[in-house]
Amino acid sequence: MNIFFVKISFWFLLIAVLFSACESKPQKKIQLSGTAQGTYYAISYYDSQDRDFQKAIDSILSAFDQSVSVYQTNSVVSRINRNDSTVVLDEWFLGNFNLAQQIAQETNGSFDITIAPIANIWGFGTFEKPDSINPQLIDSLKQYVDYRKVKLLNQQLQKENPAIQLNFNAIAQGYAVDVLADYLTSQQISNYLIDIGGEIVAKGQKPNGDKWKIGLEIPEDDAQNRTYNSIIVLEDKAVATSGNYRKFYVIDGVKYAHSLNPKTAYPVQHSLLSATVIAPNAAQADAYATAFMVMGVEKALAFVNAKPNLQAYFVFEKDGALQISMSEGFEAYLQ
Questions:
Q1: Which residues contact 72 (CB under 8 A, 6 or more apart)?
Q2: Rounded to two decimals, what is the model's pTM?
Q3: Residues 153-163: pLDDT tens digits?
Q4: Domains of the chain, CATH where assigned
């Protein structure tokens, strides 16, 4: 037999064995948790190399806050709000801004990142407690709330009035989930679940072929005793919920929820308690869920049924009882 042929056959056999060993290495489940953006994060992923990405993830989240968090005094958005002419807009600011403006236009202003001055006086922005609220104060600030009064020109933000301020709180948390998803994907992780304060991306499946399961909460004021009324199963999708049942305060016996209508500058007063949105990515799910809380059940349901890439699940109150309405394709995700 040809010795050269024997040697070549041996090396091919050895390489095949090595590849087979690599492929058969079990996928280990890694779970990470921490705090970010004033809430928790929880991440599960499967990795045959048993890698721990905790430090990298914490670093990414910290850097992300330095771009779009209004709670960081030297972040890009905070400097924009102070009209700092030397600020350089980074990719995260630009990404949040462009998507926010797109969704603002689609929803006719029900989503609006110029809500910042109003959010602050109502106590849902950077202030811990609401200021003295009166119609005159609200009217004086409404003129600064309109997404059409800000635009990008040559990578610079242009404001019609320097008093206009931005707040990315209703989109940035979801966007951060997408940033982490991109990072895990870049590390050849293809099966993972990322959750930052309820904004979630589910990628791939578990090793046994099961899809990721996420519980939908029953809207209740008590954050300590959470109950779930439905479970959805996701693969390569994102989900986010916006609700009025936990973030609120009471003034003179009137309950004011954190969903603010940019057009009226007042908290919404309709019966919708929560909106859960399934979307291609978490930033979209986050922003649309916020917009739907402003639009109310009927308008939001008509909107989402006209968007094939979106599904939504609404919980509202009618005659003292909780009612559920969902988009045409949402039921396919229910377990």
A1: 65, 66, 78
A2: 0.88
A3: 999 999 999 99
A4: 28-333 (3.10.520.10)
